[in-house]
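Hi team,

Filling in the usual template for the complex we talked about on Friday. All components are listed, including any nucleic acid strands or ligand strings, so the model treats them as one assembly.

SUBMITTER: L.P.
PURPOSE: interface mapping
COMPONENTS: two
RESIDUES: 1284
SEQUENCES:
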Amino acid sequence: MPVAASAIYFLNLRGDVLINRLYRDDVGGNMVDAFRTHIMQTKELGTCPVRQIGGCSFFYMRISNVYIVIVVSSNANVACAFKFVVEAVALFKSYFGGAFDEDAIRNNFVLIYELLDEIMDFGYPQNLSPEILKLYITQEGVRSPFSSKPTDKPVPNATLQVTGAVGWRREGLVYKKNEVFLDIVESVNLLMSSKGSVLRCDVTGKILMKCFLSGMPDLKLGLNDKIGLEKESQLKSRPTKSGKTIELDDVTFHQCVNLTRFNSEKTVSFVPPDGEFELMKYRITEGVNLPFRVLPTIKELGRTRMEVNVKVKSVFGAKMFALGVVIKIPVPKQTAKTSFQVTSGRAKYNAAIDCLVWKIRKFPGQTEPTMSAEVELISTMAEKKSWTRPPIQMEFQVPMFTASGLRVRFLKVWEKSGYNTVEWVRYITKAGSYEIRC
Amino acid sequence: MAPPAQSQRSPSPSQPSGKSEVSDLKLQLRQLAGSRAPGVDDSKRELFKKVISYMTIGIDVSSLFGEIVMCSAASDIVLKKMCYLYVGNYAKVNPDLALLTINFLQRDCKDEDPMIRGLALRSLCSLRVANLVEYLVGPLGSGLKDSNSYVRIVAVMGVLKLYHISASTCIDADFPAVLKHLLLNDPDTQVVANCLSALQEIWSLEATTSEEASRERETLLSKPIVYYLLNRIKEFSEWAQCLVLDLVAKYVPSDSNDIFDIMNLLEDRLQHANGAVVLASTKVFLQLTLSMTDVHQQVYERIKAPLLTLVSSGSPEQSYAVLSHLHLLVIRAPYIFSSDYKHFYCQYNEPSYVKKLKLEMLTAVANESNTYEIVTELCEYAANVDIPIARESIRAVGKIALQQYDVNAIVDRLLQFLEMEKDYVTAEALVLVKDLLRKYPQWSHDCIAVVGNISCKNIQEPKAKAALIWMLGEYSQDMHDAPYILEGLIENWDDEHSAEVRLHLLTAVMKCFFKRPPETQKALGAALAAGLADFHQDVHDRALFYYRLLQYNVTVAERVVNPPKQAVSVFADTQSSEIKDRIFDEFNSLSVVYQKPSYMFTDKEHRGLFEFSDELANLSIGAELADTGVPGHSVEANDKDLLLSNSNSEKEETRGPSNYDAYSAPSYDSSLVSIAASQTQSDLISSSTTVPGNAPHSSFDIDDLLGLAVSVTPSPAPAPSPPLKLNPKAVLDANAFQQKWRQLPISLTQEYSLSPQGVGALTTPQTLLRHMQSHSIHCIASGGQSPNFKFFFFAQKAEESSNFLVECIISTSSSKAQLKIKADDQSASQEFSSFFQSALSKFGLP
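RESULT (copied from the run log):
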């Protein structure tokens, strides 16, 4: 059986129960105590998200300042359980409007109880789609005092059944202005050896969509991926326009995408849910354009001095620029004094994370600022603990740039009323885990 | 109003407090109950919120039951929901008060609003009070026929809840048949999905007692039902898809067309955004193609990309879940992933549980072409990340060295570790160098040169120290200072806290003595004297043994201590392939994460019947797993082991089977506590000499010792000597039994019928034990409760040390005994079987 969650708990960081819901009788009542004493109050916390205590298994996740714990006694489906928690949190967020933390839970606990009843029954996940749930569990669970008897409310599932509509979109939506927002968000992961060779590099991207469209529109999205283009040129029997094509290693889609059609025609066609959702995710390992090159030289001059020189090259177009660039260069714990020279941005020593932190708010393309620092160390007796050099880490955001080279070629919207739509497309590349060993 | 702030609460939520608040609430609720003033619903709602928030933090508000029920007559749906929640929470402890609520819940079940009908029905079924089940049947019956799908969805789950409260009521009302009808005919897919989960659960549980139910469970896996569900799979919610896919994975296809049809239909599921769906489809693909080797390979290639994507997206917890499964696949088919090794490189900020899995995968995929890169990467971790992972990565380097032919470069790296001057790195590397030398003695020259430079004073960890001492003893002829270093260590004998190290010291000094007698003699004398005075039993015994051995004959002693050694070619695998296959069959479940089959960690009631056998294997592997520190091993096990080892194992056996549960340690099977007890005892005794699994060298030493004392190996002479005579005083300890049970093939499987007298007499396992004992068949473990009992017997031939091992499962309900016989001497097993049968048939006769 997939998850049969026997109970779900929401705990704060001290281990107090914020909300609990027992779905089945097969676990005892003192499960929270077990979790507190065997996981929260030990070093075990964080060592493994799945633990067994007594006869029960605990799956836990920390989300901001809340622990969500699922307790099962059977051989449950772990992937399903974690996905359930993630989806449930997304659902709660869509109800509270953004944040999910201890305060949000305290302020909405009745609503959460209501939702917990609907999204899981006797340990089996039921319906977690915010679209549907919002039809009958209204915001804050508060009905306006002027509305009459609840029976006026159309019964959601029955309505959907009759109209044969898709489960993720309700009928009769009307917008004055029909707009679609597409966000292509990529995070680029890099691991570079101290000799400057790329050990590992990949891009995980997602296409986020915000739809404000009336009626039941059919959308079709064209990307510059290789397979899709080849298929298209086969169908239209003319060669594709020249231009960069990219090869996606793997793609996953939101449930609204017609996967059969994707497999046969390689087009992404779908009836979108209303509002914001994640249309697709993809992964690329070949031909990644790294936005930054980092060239560090770190010299240890004797026991008490170090010289750090870091040059960062931006290798994207000169007209573009990166935002929020942060470069963290680890230094030994016994750092006493630092002095910097930078050609751009600001640098300082952060003792809490033992790093030199160099920040550049706006970083134009095709430039190469440098930072040089002198670090003085306290000489210590514990000579044996030689310093192991952790990697340099980098954070950035580059708007209008995709490390994979992915481009949206077209987005077609078709609806029977034939209205015009406005489409907005944005690209952004962020640093995932961007590590350079030195 | 918000729930009370943190500061107002009692520090420990388990301690109820706030009595005055509760009585205050009671008063207010009473005032509101009869009121019909406008706005009264809002104030009620506030009060209810307060009650629920008290309930959540553990304050006992059950005394408000009556008032809450009085107030619940409102039409407000939010109020109703809170009231249902309250009632559901306290009905179980207050069954009498729960009766009060039945009335209004039943009325709500007939409400015109389907929402309220559904909610009321759900709450009614969640009361979980056994004596109220009669009120459930009616509303459930009409709920299942309701025109609204919401109510039907709730009702189907209600049936399952009813089954858990009172199985007979549920079966008598013929609800499973109704569910089956709904499963195949309901237009709403959530109803179908819930029917599927409910029926699977009900029939699996029923199948233990009723044959009809097990037939029904089979029909769920029949082609029409599976195809019906598959054809609708796109209409199902993502969760329900997981459910259906899980069912399909168990389906046995009729031919290869069947297989390809299903795979073609499900191919696009691998692109689903929900990782659970992808994993479930992966399971289907893998299970369907198990018999088709080529296609199975292709499946691996096909699922690789989606799984790698899942690993790199989502929260660390999710990627851990996926990674555990990927880990299983990598271990099964390393060559398929060997070109993707870069995906398993660790990121600096990843949580250690992810890193640990990745390290294991890197170890598994290493082959001739990528070893250099992988080892280079692992060496980075040894210097660069947190200590436990650094240790793991050094161990990984060692493992790769042990599985490769070309160890040249790796040995250099390991030796570099020794010179890194970090305590933990040196310690781990020492243990590895020792293992390496046991496999590749040709490297001894290079290694010993480096090891000789290490000062004993810098090594604190017992395991590393033991490894160093082993090398000092083994290679004392090549290490100039060896006798003097050993001498120095012996001088500090009393400061050495680890018995393991002291044992090694004794052996090493003996070895050294035979190689360099004049330099070692003094040290040997000191060591033997210190050993004889040692308070630790094993150390004392070994010193005494060496002493007497030397006294008896020095050449014999040399043969015992310093025999010509052969390089170890393969180190023992910790998991049998049977276990691995079992885990693979349970793909997409906790088994994969825990790396052990489900019967090892779930409660007995959650096991299917088919998982009843092979508990013995479970026991031994369980112990091994605990030692190797698999993620998520049980925490309580250790405490309980200690408890068990204190209690006398004989006493254990005389206890009735009902007592066993109280003693069950989670990782052991409760029915085998007596074995567990004796095993832990022997573990305790031997724990200082052997560290099971992790330090194979020490068992080596034990073999040296035991080689003289007992001949464990059976005599090869097959000579059957009819008639069969058994040794009435046969002895076999639990460990030896387990080991044999694992090693020997099953030579005979049989089923006997028991005489009715026998069945009558078998009230507790003990009666049978005594009976069999009188026939020279001894019991080593027993367990179970009426009607199912399980025994492990052994017997020994009178003249020779040839053993028979028997697993015997007796079901008194069917009067059948199932036997599995394993024997050292296979040819005699038939004879033994008839002997056993005749002994069993006399059971219960006066």
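MY TAKE: Chain A touches chain B through 105 residues (CB under 8 Å). Chain A has three domains: 7-134, 179-287+402-436, 292-378+389-399.

Thanks, L.
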